[in-house]
Design a protein that fits this description.
The chain is an alpha+beta fold. It is built from 15 helices and 15 strands. It has two domains: 3-55 and 292-438, no CATH class; 92-253, no CATH class.
Amino acid sequence: MKFKDRYRFVRANMKKNRTRVFMTVLAATIGCAFLIVLASIGFGIHRTAIKDITNGRLMTEIEVHGEKPFTIKEVNQLDKLKNTKTVTRKQRVENNLAYHLGSYRSQAETMVAYMPAEKKAGFELNSGKMPVHKNEVIVGYDFAKSLMKEIPEKVRKGLSEKEAQQKMKDSQFKGEVLGETLEFEIQQLRGKKVVKKKIPVTIAGVGKKPSKKWFLNESVFISEGVLKEIGAFTKTPRGIMNGPQNSATDEKYNVFTDVKVYTHDAGEVEAVSKKIEKLGYSTYSAQNELKEINVVFLIIKIGLITVGTVAVLIASIGIFNTMTMAVTERVQDIGIMKAIGAHPGVIKKIFLMESSFIGLLGAFFGTLIAYLFSYGVNMFLPVLIQQFFHEKPPENFYFSYIPVTLPLICIAICFGVTLISGLRPAVRATQVDVLKALRRDI
């Protein structure tokens, strides 16, 4: 019997019992949809977690930590490692710093960075240009927001919490800082007296806007020339306040507390990290977090798929019953096929084909329903949460995500379960006695 003939036979028999077949397909659809929807929650949260880690961070970045600050010799050693694209190094100014712009004041983190390496690593400006002269600086995107007028203590005490917040908002700098000249104030303790010095610097560039709204970049990057001027005043490395003076050597000055290695692509991170660790340093990269998160979510997804598979197994009971009834009802047809020389394997394939059709139809409609559900949940659930609970979900949060692999897994499970469910009735069909089958209606 040709495939076309078997297909026609199966289709004709499914039409005869369309109500029963419909209910069986419906059960398989619900089971398959439940499996995909349940697993999609795990995939959705996993996708959100991964995006949260990788968003705004370079996957080629390796943070390097040592027991003591890095020297330029050690930085150059890291730079010579195979597959290293560049090594960035920063020196933090360790002082009670303050920046003044007219009546506005800010205490921002100040550091010296080797800008050619920073540019190679992907550092970008929102506006302006890279510093050329000694007294030119780059400020973070949110530096302007950190500039505020000082509110006298007497005025602050008389304000309510709401009024104080409004007063602070009104005291913020509202203009553009690009091109402005700041006065950079540094302090040092000489005996019991605090001595201050102001160094004028000009804002040459403003850093790129952070990828996350909650992250504020208020840092200031100064030149090595300004750092030397600070050191000459404090007589300590990196402008350390209250430190032992007149004891700063060149070695103490030229050390770096923040060192990062960048590879050409993400695939080289693990190998380079191992090389750095062999040199006696500890490393950290976004891929360390990804490995741990991937393992946790793999376990969660396997658990959810297992629970969802139970629903498909329950639906398989309906398929088993439907196929058993089909064999019982078609005993005479089976007898006729055997009488005209049909091979038992052909009869078995016919019933397995019918059970497979039921399973595949259930998988198809279940997948369609799951995609519609996932789309609806991601679109409307954040709105409902905000409407009824007055809480805004995290940006780009995925409540449900269905990768291509998930429907394929579901179809494979559903197809396998339906084959197993239809196997016993199909084998039973091959065991029907020809004479008893043909004598049935006599």
